Amino acid sequence: MEFSIWEKQSFLKADIIVVGAGISGLSAAATLKEQSPHLNVVVLERGLLPTGASTKNAGFACFGSVSELLNDVNTLGPDGMVKLVEKRWDGLQKTCQRLGRSRIDIQVKSGYELIFDEKSEVVDQMDSINRLLSDFFQQDVFKLSNEKIPAFKFGRTYHLIENPLEGQLDTGKLISTLWDYCTSIGVRVHTGCEVMNIHEQVNGVTVECKNAVFTSNKVAVCTNAFTKKLLDDPLDLTPGRGVVMSVIPKNELSFEGTFHYEEGYYYFRDYYGKLLYGGARNIAREEESTTEFGINENIREKLMHDLETIILPDQDYRVEMEWSGIMAFGENKEPIVKKISDRIAIGVRLGGMGVAIGSLVGEEVAELLLEV
Question: Model-level pTM?
Answer without folding.
Answer: 0.97
